[in-house]
Amino acid sequence: MKIVRTLGVAAALALAAVAAHADPAPDPQNTITLHDENSSVSIGGLSDRYYVNGLFLGWTSPSDKGSPLLKDLDHRIWGPGQTRVEFSLEQQIWTPADSREVIPQPGDRPYAGVLMANLSLLDDTDTTRSVIALSAGLIGPDAGGEQIQNGFHDIIGQAHVNGWGTQIRNDPAVNLLAGRTWRSKAMPIGGDYEVDWLGNVTGAVGDLRDYALAGGSVRIGKGLDSDFGAPRLAPGLSGEDAYLRNRPLAWYAYAGLDGQLVGYDLTLQASPFRSGQAVPIDPVVGEGQIGLVVLYGPARVAFSYVAQTYEFHGQQNGLHEFFSAALATKF
What is the three-state SS of 241-261? Predict the structure, then answer.
């Protein structure tokens, strides 16, 4: 755990030391993003287990229109660039493999719900996007995991999940995340199509999840300078929620891979401050994802399919699959 904490801090410091490039065009509009990740839709069929759902609502400011204090802080961390502020709320839900059991089988993932508020600073140059985010919230019954999952089951006519009475108890959660995405120059490949690649390094420390991530993706389409990749909920390979409305239509298909070195995960392990349900984590987690992103007028729609390796010892059923969908609009 201490090693990964050190790696996360070192990664953030290393990213901050990278020289910035020219500023992109300013973005004068606000952005609202609604995002959902769900494992009940997968190539392998219904899989209402493990990481079940992630729900996200975020507001992103125009560039360089926020607090001068936050802008100054952003530039001190990342260097010159276009600054945006983002505030978001997110909830994530996890269940064991068999959610019909009132008491999960020994060695299975515990029930957990997490509710977090995030304050993020985004810094853009023509070739980089940097982010630092402070998250605060809680894990446990007050996060509303049981109400959201069983309420949705009522709507679609499915039976309630039985084991939420055993979920991880209420605990506060605070995390600090820092990351940078590098975007290569787009290369034309004929017919107005272009290709580029994105590289990403992210580190996070706190009492929710300590990890270091490295990965990248390849994109093919038109108007690749409109954003820095498809958005994802953390932890994951994400281009974040900001994008530019710099042409009537832009789109791309993409494929990406990332690896995560995990030192601590509160949704799997007992709290450092009191005992509780726990399973041993797998310290190395890999993800592959493919998707399609379309930007039309003020809106952006992003769809991604994600396949994830095991997060804990004893996990079963092969790769864990889920879909991610995000709808955003500018105003």
Answer: CCCCCCCCEEEEEEEEEEEEE
Lookup result for tokens 């390849």: 218
Residues 38 and 16: their CA atoms lie apart, in Å, by 33
Which candidate, 21, 118, 26, places its Cα nearest to that of 65?
A: 26
What pLDDT does 43 receive? 55
Residue 163 neighbours by CB distance under 10 Å: 19
Q: How many residues does the chain have?
A: 331
Map residue 238 onto helix, strand or coil: coil
User: For 163-219, how does the pLDDT look when each residue is reduced to its tens digit (9 = 90+)?
Assistant: 888 899 999 999 999 999 999 999 999 888 999 999 999 999 999 999 999 999 999
State how far the Cα of 331 lies from the Cα of 329, in Å rounded to an integer. Answer: 7
Q: Where are the beta strands (DSSP E) in 39-127?
A: 50-60, 82-95, 112-124
Count of CA atoms in the C-beta half-sphere (13 A) of 322: 23
Rounded distance between C-alpha atoms, residue 31 and residue 329, angstroms? 6
Give the integer Cα–Cα distance in Å for 123 and 23.
9
pTM of the model: 0.87
**What pLDDT does 270 receive?**
73
Q: What angle do CA 330, 42, 296 make, to 5 degrees?
A: 20
| Average pLDDT for 224-242 | 96
**How far apart are alpha carbons 260 and 203 in whole angstroms?**
9
Q: Stretch 275-299: mean pLDDT, rounded?
A: 93
Instruction: Give residue for tokens 């004068």.
Output: 28
- 150 φ/ψ angles, rounded to the nearest 5 degrees: -70, -30
Q: Which of 45-54, 217-226, 276-285 has the lowest mean pLDDT?
A: 45-54
Contact between 106 and 96 (Cβ < 8 Å): no
